[in-house]
Amino acid sequence: MHPNGWDRGLQVTADGNGLVGHAGAILLRKLADQSGLTAALDAALTRPGTSPQVSRGMVLVSTSIAIAMGATAMADIEVLSQLSPVLGAAPSDSTVRRALDLADDRTLARVAQARARIRKHIWELIEGTPAGFPWLAVAGKVLAGWTVIDMDGTLITAHSDKDKAAPTWKKGYGFHPLGAWCMNTRESLDMMLRPGNAGSNTFTDRKEVLDKALKQVPAASRRRILVRVDGAGASHELVKHLLTLSSPRKTLLFTCGWMITGSDEDAIRQLAEGAWLPGIAQDGSLEDDKDVAEITHLLSRAGNWPGGLRWIARRVKPSRRHLKNLTAYEKQAGWRYSITCTNIPHTGMDGVPGSQHPQHIDATHRDHATVETDGVRTAKAMGLRNLPSKAWQVNKGWVLAANIAADLAAWDRLLGVHDHEDLRDAEPDTLRYRLWHIPARLVRHARQRILKISPDWPWADAFLTCWQRLCDMPAPA
Predict the structure, then answer these.
(1) Letter string b/e over residues 438-476, b meaning 16 or more CB atoms within 10 A of that residue's CB
(2) pLDDT tens digits, residue range 263-275?
(3) What does the CA dihedral 93, 97, 98, 104 come to, rounded to 10 degrees?
(4) CA 189 from chain center: how many Å?
(5) Given 339, 356, 381, which residue is the final one in a domain?
(6) 352 and 431: one domain?
């Protein structure tokens, strides 16, 4: 066959009937409705003395679904009109804007309470699946029983003048939101929208985001928490605050980056060569030219910090791009150093053998880098590449909708396709390509509506299984 002959005799028209594009949106809408999220959000968005014609909870859920499907602007809600024979009329972009404009602090607090209630129900269902609740594995060891929260900031470029957009530390222009993610499930627990010039280590911001994120974690899963913070967010105030969050009934451990000073280099200089141990890769194997050692007993400024802290040093051979940033001591020693501060005790993390060793602590903290892929990159793929409005409060509402979209994507994976290896841990683009953007035809027969997808679609069985599981999902008590 001639390579250019495929279009011979082909005509393209726009008169098809009963066609439904992006049919996978029904999975997300069914999940939101069946879990009670839509109703909970509707109650949280209710204003005294108002009776909107369209459920505000449905509008916020529809916006989140549109974001999950790839929407980057409020006008993209029009994509859901393709599904109006199935889902009912889609809200207009002006209705979406009015719903997002409700995102004042009081309403956001009510929405957070609603999300936390539904999350508790969802986590119970996830735990009841054959796959069980997803525990993180670090350096070949499973952190069973530990809920891991990663905090990180990201930058959103503003391509036009928007309220509170400002120059960023990377010499761009836009916003600098700060978020917290549950790395077990990849849910977005909380995110604070901030101007572009907001500081990386602003304690009050990090305390607020962390406190709200902890409230999103069901009480039963708050008994053992691990919080990881990068070096940009570490501060004396944050470390002191983290140390106050443990109690006899719950344990909160943390790792955070550390800004190295001359006194820290003096501590490293005092280490005997035999004190350095090989680093551990995430698969549990030993690393070449990467060593780890504890320097707590040598750190002169340790006395200025609260008790119970440990400091773990790591050295690696510097790459070419690091050479210009090396200190005089690093150039002399031929190593590039970093330090992790932690309160993981010498008894280790409960139920995780070997977690007290410096190598495991180092690997645990380095695994924090996954937040930039599993958390930040997912957020950018679902609504946070751009903020669509000039108004600050509307953009806060958009960030909320993007966080809900991340939750729906995580719940869809963990409840609907937990036994499909190629979908259970899939990123948004993969879910869109394989499940959410699937085409279908809507037919009516015997007073029934039937949504038909192609039997040849490679993930047709996964789609049908996911739909049936969501239909069978029990409602919250």
Answers:
(1) bebebeeeeeeeebebeeeeebeebbeebbebbeebeeb
(2) 999 999 999 999 9
(3) 160
(4) 7
(5) 381
(6) no
What is the three-state SS of the chain? CCCCCCCCCCCCCCCCCCEECCCCHHHHHHHHHHCCHHHHHHHHCCCCCCCCCCCHHHHHHHHHHHHHHCCCCHHHHHHHHHHHHHHCCCCCHHHHHHHHCCCCHHHHHHHHHHHHHHHHHHHHHHHCCCCCCCCCEECCEECCCCEEEEEEECCEECCCCCCCCEECCCCCEEECCEEEEECCCCEEEEEECCECCCCCCCHHHHHHHHHHHHHHCCHHHCCEEEEEECHHHCCHHHHHHHHCCCECCEEEEEEEEECCCHHHHHHHHCCCHHHCEEEECCCCCEEEEEEEEECHHHCHHHHHCCCCCEEEEEEECCCHHHHHHCCHHHHHHCCEEEEEEECCCCCCCCCCCCCCCHHHHHHHHHHHHHHHHHHHHHHHHCCCCCCCCCCHHHHHHHHHHHHHHHHHHHHHHHHHCCCCHHHHCCCHHHHHHHHHCCCEEEEEECCEEEEECCCCCCCHHHHHHHHHHHHHCCCCC
Q: Which domain holds residue 244?
A: 135-381
Joined tokens for residue 316: 């690696």
**What's the average model confidence in pLDDT over 179-190?**
95
Rounded mean pLDDT, 158-162: 92
Backbone angles phi, psi at 74, to 5 degrees: -65, -30
Is residue 168 one of the residues assigned to a domain?
Answer: yes
Neighbours of 426 (CB within 10 A): 19
Residues 42 and 166 in one domain: no
Bridge partners (DSSP) listed for residue 180: 151, 190
The contacts of residue 369 (CB under 8 Å, 6+ apart) are: none
Give yes or no: residues 231 and 84 share one domain.
Answer: no
Rounded-to-10 torsion of CA 216, 220, 222, 226: -110
Each residue's pLDDT tens digit, 78-123: 988 888 889 989 999 999 999 999 999 999 999 999 999 999 999 9
Asked whether the predicted pLDDT for residue 342 surpasses 60, the reply is yes
The predicted pLDDT at position 124 comes to: 97
- Provide the residue type at 323 as one letter: L
pLDDT at 37 > cutoff 70: yes
Residue 472 in tokens: 């069978």
What is the amino acid identity at position 15? D
How do residues 230-283 score in pLDDT, each as one tens digit?
876 668 899 999 999 999 899 999 999 988 989 999 999 999 999 999 999 988
For the chain, what percent of residues have pLDDT higher than 70? Answer: 98
One domain, residues 221 and 347: yes
Residue 376: alpha-carbon gap to chain centroid: 6
